[in-house]
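Thread: Newbie trying to understand structure tokens

Hi all, I'm a second-year student working on a class project, and my supervisor (Dr. K.) asked me to get a predicted structure for one chain before our next meeting. I've only ever worked with sequences, so writing a 3D structure as a token string is new to me. If someone could post the tokens and maybe explain what I'm looking at, I'd be very grateful. Here's the chain:
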Amino acid sequence: MITQRMFGKTLDGREVLAFTLESGACKATILNYGGILQSLTVPDRKGREVDVLLGYHDVQSYERNGGYLGALIGRFGNRIGGGKLTVDGKEYSLYCNDRGNHLHGGKVGFNRKIWKHEILGDALKLTLLSPDGEENYPGNLSVEVVYTLKDGELKIAYRAVSDKKTAVNLTNHAYFNLNGESDGSILDNVLTIGSNMITPTSSTMIPEGGFRAVKGTPFDFNEGKEIGRDIGAEDLDLLQGNGYDHCYVLNKKAGEYACYAEARSAKTGIRMRCFTDAPAVQFYAGNGLHQEGKHGYYGKRAGFCLETQAIPNNVNVPEYAAYGSSIVDAGEVYTYTAAYRFDCGE
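---
Reply by user tm_fold:
Sure, no problem. This is what the structure looks like when written as tokens:
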């Protein structure tokens, strides 16, 4: 079941709608502003409702505060080094909004757009046309994102097609805390990621080539551990990111839809299993959070993100593109799926 209501208005007077998807004891609220996941309520071990998503109660907070909380990201999730994009020998200079690099779509990304909406039974379809030249990307890009909530699983299906060869790397920037969004810390959330290697970065967090094996390092989550256990280790990659903010290359075949991660809370008993057919995920431990949220202050590491995607900066690094290129031809359909499945796993 999907219900619709007014959420508020933007600073320039545009109406923002909220859509609530319900399935059993689970509820997800999604805004047409930025395609934002505003809340996700699931039952804990005692059957109590717990909102596991960081967010805001009003439109102006989403407009004025950083962090991309719960938003759809595009045209390019994550970073492109130096804002340099070359397509068929032509270089495009993208807006640099992060230490001399292009981040999350640039100056006005998809997270700040009003998306068109359509309710299709139990699914919410959001669509957007990004015109040729927007943020200096080539091609008119038609984007479609479908949210569904069923049997404790929130699924996000992405689809895009351009009339010119271009670059696309979509994701969602949801911040989770399985203790509850107002808990204040994810350091005791236990996380497992099925990945044997990350992409090391420059001092400005740009993967420039090569891979780093996680075995024997603070980045190894294959056996599962508390997020906070090794986050303060004396490790160059950790220090550069002020904690975890790194791309994990997933241990699965290209295009294979599989469970790649699991997170759980000892406080609530809530378990989240994560699925995708994307080749990689950016694990961000909320190191830069500094926002007033729905029920109080979100400080450093109040939430964590698992942003499914292609490897960042793959448009400039061929060995990364080999795991899944973000360059798509005119008329080529870009598509992938991500899902978060909740239960009490204890």
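A couple of things are worth pointing out once you decode it. Residues 167 and 327 are 4 Å apart (CA to CA). The chain has one domain: 2-344. Feel free to ask follow-ups in this thread.
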